[in-house]
Specification:
2 copies of one chain form a homodimer. Helix content of chain A is about 35%, strand content about 25%. By secondary structure, the first copy, chain A, is α/β, with parallel strands linked by helices. In chain A, helix 5 (about 105-120) packs parallel to helix 10. Chains A, B: Keywords: Amino-acid biosynthesis, Metal-binding, Methionine biosynthesis, NAD, NADP, Oxidoreductase, Sodium, Threonine biosynthesis.
């Protein structure tokens, strides 16, 4: 069997990992895939730059079309990131009959349907396991492991940077700003951390998870997204005191034909399996009607974990090529669904209010909840240690998002409510 | 596309779940698999018995050959258990070109190579995801998700009964005997619990996990197996006090070409992800050289979780039939490995000794460890509350199994050592 030739777009951290695994595990890969796998060409920005691994000079190119339009190349592995040119390269590669493996969550979240349609048209595989939760094989689990089940909920800690920050804040009582600076110094957070800390990265990954888990088309712009930049150490302290951990959770829910997807800091009951996922680790919790609760845990990023997923996809593509079934097994999205309205999205909420410390205030506040039919699970009133006012901590029973918004709107107009300090979704 | 016809061997708990999912999710399955899936015949012991689900009388049969030799049937799903007749049925079905999905861990652990060879010979698929850890898709994760990696360690809580018993003992300070009785009353343990509590069930599952994870032939009789029937509530109390949970762990390790597999009650550091897997839940922890730490969590048994895995296998088989690649994708075991000797098996150990309470005893005991080059991580001596003797609690550094056995042998001969109360492997 002739070797399968791979063109690698990008030789950064993950690209380096792909080269290391393909070369280091060559014999194993050949046993698995039934063919040897050769990295034929590698796109780099600068051929003369010093690198962590040695790649023969004649394999390096600065021209992407050397790979995309190279008739020798069977599979394009894209680890360069970006969505502008990258999209063009991938569409062109597919239209020339090349299979594609990509780690590009932005591209798949924004242009997944277009890319998969092009792949179908030309009989090509497109696999993208590494785009979500690095080394955790969660996409094939959703597509194949749970093909028999109806998944109704997916909750993910899918951004290592924010989980690192929240874990540090929780374990050390540190402030958001201090931990962010430390994370930047350690290379866990970028100098412009917006995409991570504002939940945008997680929203893209949740779009991909929900698309595959619910087998439906999900548009990124329907994902309601809130980051962690306004989380305080006091919030985390309150959460712990009540038996919760504060986590940036992506939550995708499905009920019959309606779905909702959101990303937000969420208080998770500390006995829930996802509550103890700490540091840069990722985890995806999946609830299926038949299988019940499951969770998948591992490294969400990093050179070798991410490359593990890419090369596993590459093995799958090579097997399909050998069996002559390339492009026949791409995941399908056949369910017609609609986005839930805020009236249909239901969860528990935590609220921390600063209120006037005088008779009748609690009654006034609880009447607002009652007026919008939000029932309360627990209420705690105590003096605010810093001001001559009272603190009220409330956890609601399941309530719909629209009703909670109305409660908050009413609070903003009430004199006795000085500040709505925090509002968090509650899970578990 | 003509419907794919399934013969179901067995209509107990899991068989009932298979019928429920195939019927309840028919439209979804058709979308996934590209064909409708019909349960054509069901083997039962007694056609007239009342059942939890209604299956048309003409589909029931009491004769297995009605299914095995039925030319209409494309796939045999085996959920009857046992290894004698069942093996004959499956071998015959394969030799007649029928694909097989089975939940039978005993059969696959004991006769896996023979069955897979027969499948290869006749171009048939054999899938058995449900045989290990019920609803957790761990076998396809090992085979496909980590095809690119070299797995060096697999640790599993793969028996729900024993995990339920140990969790109850830990949470309620109850004795083994009392919790076992309760588990039997609740149906979590069988009236003869030997296979579960003595670790035999877990050993079979570890054989399958190690075969697929290490891609080598593993023989069940090389699995060193110890159950939980002699675990005391005091052991669990000591474990907790030192920051550990006591779990029945299957541990499979690989170093280059040597492997070792064992099942034993193990003290797991409470910060390790597998330490917080409680009750009847299962989890499999997988360490790969590239991917690092991962863990997969979910229901290990039960009607619908187990049936989820079986029907997911069925969908995979149907896809393969449609693509004409049946039998081309069975997992391979090409690595030549040998069993590690006791000198090569290394781990930490916990020991609880009752010793004479007089000067020089601790020195005598620590000299024994030193003589066999076992170094100690921590030593605690305290009075035994029940007898005029001392208790010594030791945790070793990594030590080889042979050396620890020699230490214990020496203790049995020493007058000052009254009793070696407990010896446990330590992880994490």
């Amino acid at each position: 069997m002739k070797p399968i030739k791979v063109g690698l777009l990008g030789l950064g951290t993950v690209g380096t990992g792909v080269v290391r695994i393909v070369e280091g595990h060559q014999e194993d890969l050949q046993n698995q895939a039934g063919s040897s796998i050769v990295i034929e060409k590698v796109l780099v920005q600068n051929k003369t730059k010093a690198r962590a691994i040695s790649v023969p000079q004649e394999k390096l190119t600065e021209d992407p079309w050397d790979i995309i339009r190279n008739p020798e190349i069977d599979v394009v592995v894209e680890v360069m990131g970006g969505i502008g040119n990258t999209r063009d390269y991938i569409l062109e590669a597919l239209s020339l009959g090349k299979h594609v493996v990509t780690a590009n969550k932005d591209l798949m979240a924004l242009h997944g349907p277009e890319i998969l349609a092009k792949a179908r048209e030309h009989g090509c595989d497109v696999l993208y396991e590494a785009s979500v939760a690095g080394g955790i094989p969660i996409l094939r689990t959703l597509v194949e492991g749970f093909s028999s089940d109806r998944i109704t909920k997916i909750m993910g800690i899918v951004n290592g940077t924010t989980n690192y920050i929240l874990t540090k804040m929780s374990q050390e009582g540190a402030s958001y700003g201090d931990v962010l600076k430390e994370a930047q110094a350690l290379g866990y957070a970028e100098s412009d951390p917006t995409s991570d800390v504002e939940g945008l990265d997680a929203a893209r990954k949740m779009t991909i998870l929900a698309t595959l888990g619910f087998r439906t088309h999900v548009s990124l712009d329907t994902v309601s997204t809130q980051g962690i930049s306004s989380v305080t150490k006091e919030d985390i302290l309150y959460a712990k005191r009540l038996g919760y951990e504060l986590k940036l959770l992506g939550i995708a829910e499905r009920q019959d034909d309606s779905i909702s997807i959101s990303v937000q800091p969420t208080m998770v009951k500390s006995t829930h399996p996802i509550a103890s996922v700490n540091g840069v680790f990722n985890a995806v919790y999946v609830y299926g009607e038949a299988v019940g609760e499951t969770m998948f845990y591992g490294a969400g990023a990093g050179e070798l974990p991410t490359a593990t997923s890419i090369v596993a996809d590459l093995v799958a593509v090579v097997k399909n090529i050998k069996l002559g079934v390339g492009g026949k097994k791409n995941a399908l999205t056949y369910n017609e669904t609609r986005q839930k309205t805020d009236e249909e999205i239901s969860s528990k909420y935590f609220l921390l209010l600063h209120v006037a410390d005088r008779a009748g205030v609690l009654a006034q506040i609880t009447q607002v909840f009652a007026a919008f039919e939000v029932s309360l699970q627990s209420v705690l009133q105590q003096p605010n240690p810093n001001n001559p006012e009272a603190e009220i901590i409330i956890i609601t029973h399941d309530a719909n998002k629209a009703a909670v918004a109305k409660v908050l709107e009413t609070f903003h107009k009430l004199d006795v409510v000085h500040t709505v300090k925090s509002v968090y979704r509650v899970e578990g």
